[in-house]
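Hey,
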Amino acid sequence: MNKKPIIRFENVTKQYDGETILNDVSFEIESGKFYTLLGPSGCGKTTILRLIAGFTEPTEGHIHFRGKVIDRIPANERQVNTVFQDYALFPHLNVYENVAFGLRVKKWKKPDIDAKVKEALRFVNLEGYETRAISEMSGGQRQRVAIARAIVNEPEVLLLDEPLSALDLKLRTEMQYELRELQRRLGITFIFVTHDQEEALAMSDEIFVLDHGIIQQTGSPTDIYDEPINRFVADFIGESNIVPGRMIRDFLVEFAGRTFECVDGGFSSDEPVEIVIRPEDLEITTPDRGKMKVRVDSQLFRGVHYEIIGYDESGNEWLVHSTKRVNVGAEIGLDFDPEAIHVMRFGETEEEFDRRLEAYESSESGGAST
């Protein structure tokens, strides 16, 4: 039996001053998972967060929370809390008073407030900081205060609007681990907004990739990285080699002037396609042993690997991540497995991809049964 979604967007469009920010968006959010809304600035991810929080209303469509339409329900009556990019803490209040603020507004009794604040601070590893001034806290500590203030109200969904963006790289990495572990311990739904691909891949159960107000693809980090459905997703999620090709038939594709076995099907014969191969999936070998030959144009040392750029005989650029050092100007061979080749149809949407895959799998199972 499928779990009922805690949040459902039904054909939601949002416009500001006649400009469409979200365009006919539909998706579902399950309870107890870590979701990430990922995309470049202006793609609509923060607008989705604001719609869920109740800070704005949809122009068209409906938002459901546990099966109930909440389009017009005020923000303070929704079972969600938000951690903002700047944390929005009260600088004149200490840690305890910041965390207790929402409970005081709700007229909770002092013993109950004390118990809830202590519990929330324990969850974020800030026990003993109750009387500390906000001005005396580090960036990571302030973020944890903001999270404690949010979870003390026991929301069913916690919304996080790029809360790590102001932190330095080391602290940001530490907080990624802390947030992921906190979500697991709390067991509530996190919806996290970021434009950082590595952050999204590291933290999420499921990622929604947005561009120009449209969800381009949804899936697990592995699905998004290994099986991008179009050029935008492939290019935005990590680094990719994307070259033109031609599908000869199922499991056989042509690019870079040669024919290669692959694992993709469901395309038409002789259909123009785009080929994606991740740079870490390319192995450097001798020219006579590689599946293709590349002339090395540049090489940079990145600490854990060399970043090598070369060009094949058809003029396609190839980015390679390798622990092997090569000489600029040298000819090298590149080897790769059929599984490393990902074939994309030009301009395919997620719905079209799903239909093609379903039709292909249906034809395969039908063929097997005859």
